[in-house]
């Protein structure tokens, strides 16, 4: 209970900002969740695999949680719900293929510096473009972040 109310929200907040290239930081954050899961189950180190502990506690892996939160933030950016303007970070996808998952596909702007090339805006595009159409609702005027979050949670099997 302590983990869910105190440590969990801090880790969830930190998830979207980790860079996949800062392995040391990712391992430190994962270590906290591993230790918390062991304490919550009253186990000794290496008594049970970490994935099984997460299943027993009904917790998501931090990688899975990070992907979910990143997709939610991308939704807010695409529909300008967070104050960021889409055109500053993404371009609309110019490809007009017939097998489109959804009409809100994006592509990156060209990046000249490493800080942008390894940023959230480049990292999330593949996951965003592969989302199914039913997550976005039926109408362009029906933009609702809470509905998107609940649909995304169900689709990704997030607890």
What does this entry look like structurally?
- The protein is mainly α and 159 residues long.
- The chain folds into two domains: 2-59, no CATH class; 67-156, no CATH class.
- The protein is 54% helix and 4% strand.
- The chain contains nine helices and two strands; from the N terminus they run H-H-H-H-H-E-E-H-H-H-H.
- A two-stranded antiparallel sheet has the order 1-2.
- It is globular and about 55 Å long.
- The protein starts with a helix and ends with a helix.
- The model has no long low-confidence stretch (mean pLDDT 77).
Question: Mind sketching the topology for me?
Answer:
Layout: H1 2-14, H2 23-41, H3 50-57, H4 62-78, H5 86-89, E1 90-92, E2 106-108, H6 114-117, H7 120-123, H8 125-129, H9 145-156
Antiparallel strand pairs: 1-2
H and E string: HHHHHEEHHHH
Structural class comes to mainly alpha
Return Rg in Å.
18 Å
What is the domain total for the residues? 2
Determine the number of helices (DSSP H or I, runs of at least 4 residues).
9
> What is the 3D shape?
globular
Per DSSP E runs of 2 or more residues, the count of β-strands stands at: 2
The rounded distance between the terminal residues' Cα atoms is: 15 Å
Mean pLDDT, as a whole number? 77
Q: Which percent bin holds the helix content?
A: 40-55%
Strand order of the largest sheet: 1-2
Beta-strand content estimate: under 5%
Low-confidence regions = none
Instruction: Give a short account of the largest sheet.
Output: 2 strands, antiparallel
